[in-house]
């Protein structure tokens, strides 16, 4: 998930407008469909505080977008201790926080519903299976997203393309004809490596791994593009 404290406000969908509509769409979950960023911050802060450390901006930057196992390795370097144990502790804190308070990102429900009525859709997440299922169910998005790939379902998490390739395979679509919707540089790298067109949302502005950008899923320009299919 990406940093939402500042957001680019102007959409740039030129690359999407120049291409045919995608044959399928694969969404990231955390920070893209579900506003789990505050939950993640609270969970990480709790783990840090138990060990007498402050969860500051530098720590946050080093952990954003990582799978739980990857986060455990980073926290072990920052805090000391066992990476697997830290990852397990973080996973439990995340699950509690998400079940208590995660909500869909602005526009997520409408975009997912509109796209699911037109093309196959799926989710590719670095999150553990239990966390992913809990988050989508809590946000009421599961009904439109029967195909999901979690961090537990692939050997190598984002930024490796495995989860996006697995989602495309499950949908039966060519990655080159599929749109990925991402909010983090780690996820954008994964989708780009899979050969997908990448729509960045939030602070994920255009760059080498992002083809188009919208500040939010309820952005007027994005809605206009969808209406033009």
Features:
2 domains; Rossmann fold; alpha/beta; disordered N terminus; 229 residues; 6-stranded parallel beta sheet
Question: Could you describe the 3D structure shown?
Answer:
With 229 residues, the protein is of the alpha/beta class. It folds into two domains: 148 residues, HAD superfamily/HAD-like (Rossmann fold, 3-Layer(aba) Sandwich); 65 residues. Helix content is 45%, strand content 12%. The strands form two sheets. Strands 5-4-1-6-7-8 form a six-stranded parallel sheet. The chain has a two-stranded antiparallel sheet with strand order 2-3. Helix 7 links the parallel strand 4 and strand 5. Helix 2 packs across helix 5 and helix 5 packs parallel to helix 7. The radius of gyration is 17 Å and the shape is globular. The two termini are 28 Å apart. The N terminus is likely disordered.
Measured distance between first and last alpha carbons: 28 Å
CATH superfamily of the largest domain: HAD superfamily/HAD-like
Strand percent estimate:
5-15%
Structural class of the helices, strands and pairings? alpha/beta
One letter per element, helices H and strands E, the order comes to HEEHHHHEHEHEHEHEEH
Task: Outline the biggest β-sheet.
Answer: 6 strands, parallel
CATH architectural name of the largest domain: 3-Layer(aba) Sandwich
Multimerization state = single chain
Q: pLDDT average, as an integer? A: 92
């Amino acid at each position: 998930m990406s940093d939402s404290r500042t957001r680019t406000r102007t959409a740039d969908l030129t690359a999407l407008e120049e291409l045919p509509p995608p044959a399928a769409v694969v969404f990231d979950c955390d920070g893209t469909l579900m506003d789990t960023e505050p939950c993640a911050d609270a969970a990480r802060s709790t783990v840090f505080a138990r060990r007498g450390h402050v969860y500051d901006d530098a720590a946050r930057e080093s952990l954003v977008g990582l799978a739980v196992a990857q986060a455990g390795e980073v926290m072990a370097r920052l805090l000391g201790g066992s990476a697997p144990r830290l990852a397990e502790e973080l996973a439990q804190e995340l699950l509690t926080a998400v079940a208590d308070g995660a909500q869909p990102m602005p526009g997520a429900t409408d975009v997912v519903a509109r796209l699911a009525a037109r093309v196959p859709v799926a989710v590719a997440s670095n999150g553990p299976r239990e966390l992913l299922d809990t988050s989508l169910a809590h946000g009421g998005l599961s009904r439109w997203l029967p195909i999901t790939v979690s961090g537990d379902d692939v050997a190598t998490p984002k930024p490796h393309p495995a989860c996006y390739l697995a989602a495309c395979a499950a949908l039966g679509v060519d990655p080159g004809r599929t749109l990925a919707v991402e909010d983090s540089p780690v996820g954008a790298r994964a989708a780009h490596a899979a050969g997908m067109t990448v729509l960045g949302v939030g602070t994920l502005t255009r760059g080498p791994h992002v083809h188009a950008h919208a500040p939010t899923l309820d952005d007027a320009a994005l809605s206009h593009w969808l209406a033009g299919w």
